[in-house]
Specification:
Length: 24
C-alpha cells in the first residue's frame, strides 16, 4: 500500500504541474 501511494503521489504532482503549465 505504501508503494502504491508513493507512486500515485509523485504522478499526481507531475500531472498537476503539467496542467498548471498548460493552463498558463
Amino acid at each position: 500500500m505504501t508503494d502504491l501511494t508513493a507512486r500515485v503521489r509523485p504522478r499526481g504532482v507531475v500531472i498537476s504541474a503539467e496542467a498548471n503549465f498548460t493552463a498558463d
